[in-house]
Each structure stands twice: as structure tokens, then as C-alpha cells.
Amino acid sequence: MNKNVRAGGFAAAVLAFVAAATFADPSMALDADAAPAVSYLEHADAAIDTEAGADPTQVAAIADRVAKVAYAAVPRPRSLGELVDVYEAGDVSEKQQACLAKAVYFEARGEPIEGQLAVADVVLNRAASGKYPSTICEVVTQKAQFSFIEDGRFPEPNKDSKAWRKAVAVARLARNEIAEAVPQDVLWYHADYVAPVWRHGLAKSDQIGAHIFYGPRAKG
């Protein structure tokens, strides 16, 4: 068993992880491949050889110090609100992503962030379900599904508004699977001030803000 511990190599490896987690894009925050190509301790290459009589407590002390640095530097899990702040943007260039952001904006911009995310989840769940069209834009523009759609077309959002920037962020979080508000089998919702007949054949999943969400009723 190799008892040689290189202080510089061990610490640099840990700090490379810290650098990856601290400076990478939020969606890749713990991807070690995203670490900057920097050796933070390239000059600290003195070996501590426990077989050569080095004090084992010195090794433990170094490991403890490096662990404390790592703990302090690696970001803690962000709240949903903080994630939205990170991912806000004023425009979206990709068509499907833009359709999702518009669905969030027009259906739920007055809702809490979790409620906006739940609407995005329902759209994505439908596209993946095999029961609805397979693309986001087709799901949203499907006839008689989303009331804000006019003759199969989207109205234009106010792209200078804070609500639009948040809708873009929520759409990014949902599509990149960074955050989720409702399970994958939730395909339906309605506002709490209406009582559609179709709800009777479904199982209520949750109510978030003014929207009530449903999944399929369990068989048997």
C-alpha cells in the first residue's frame, strides 16, 4: 500500500474541484471537466512521506485545511428564486425555448416562481408523453389547449419587462432539468376559479398559486 502523500498534489486536486464548482456555468457547477486549467498550488510540491518519518498528524492537518477551503468555496444549493435570478435573460434565440418561455409568461407570469415552473413542466411533460404533439411549440399551439393562443399564434410578450426575463429563466431551468415543480405524469392544470368537467377523471397532484395540477388516476 502506498503511504506517500504529496501535499501539493492532494491539495491541488481538491482545489481544482473547488474551482470547477465555483466558476463553471450554473448548469455545470459540479462538472469537474469544466475546471479552469490552473494549478493553484503548482509550487507546493513538497512530499510528505509517512514511511520516512513524517508526523502523520501533519498529513491530517493539511487534509483538514484543504477540506475547510473546499467547504467554504463550493456553492451551496441555490433556492429556486436565486436560480431564476442567475438564468434571467431578455431574449431567446432558439424556437422551442422561446415557445416555452412564452407559455410561462402568458399562462403564469402573475404566479409564484414555483407555479411558473409547474406550467413549464406540464408543457414539457406533454411533449414527452406520446399523448400530445412531440414539440414544445406544437403542444402550446394545439387547438383549444392554451387560452392565450390566438388562431394558432403567439401574442408578443413585453420583452422589456421583468416578468419576461423571469419567464425565460424558468423555461431554461425546466428544459435543462435543473429544477422541477411537478412530476412527469402531470399533464393537466386549470385555474382555481373554474371547475372543468374533465378534472373528474384525473388525480389531483398539487395546487400551486392559482393553478391546480393533475396526473392520471391510478388504476384499480
Write up what this structure looks like.
Helices cover 43% and strands 10% of the residues. It is elongated and about 80 Å long. The protein has 220 residues and is mainly α. The strands form 2 sheets. A 3-stranded antiparallel beta sheet has the order 3-5-4. A two-stranded antiparallel sheet has the order 1-2. Helix 1 (7-23) runs parallel beside helix 2 (56-73) and helix 4 (95-108) packs across helix 7. Strand 4 and strand 5 (211-216) form a beta hairpin. It contains 7 helices and 5 strands. Residues 1-51 have low confidence and may be disordered.
Instruction: Determine the fraction of residues in helical runs and give it as a percent range.
Output: 40-55%
Radius of gyration, in Å, reads 25 Å
Main beta-sheet annotation: 3 strands, antiparallel
- Poorly predicted segments: 1-51
> What is the string of SSEs from the N terminus onward?
EHEHHHHHHEEE
Strand order of the largest sheet: 3-5-4
Key structural traits:
about 220 residues, mainly alpha, two-stranded antiparallel sheet
In short:
The chain has 220 residues and is mainly α.
Question: Mind sketching the topology for me?
Answer:
Layout: E1 4-6, H1 7-23, E2 47-49, H2 56-73, H3 80-87, H4 95-108, H5 113-129, H6 136-141, H7 162-175, E3 188-191, E4 202-208, E5 211-216
Antiparallel strand pairs: 1-2, 3-5, 4-5
Helix pairs in contact: 1-2, 3-7, 4-5, 4-7, 5-7
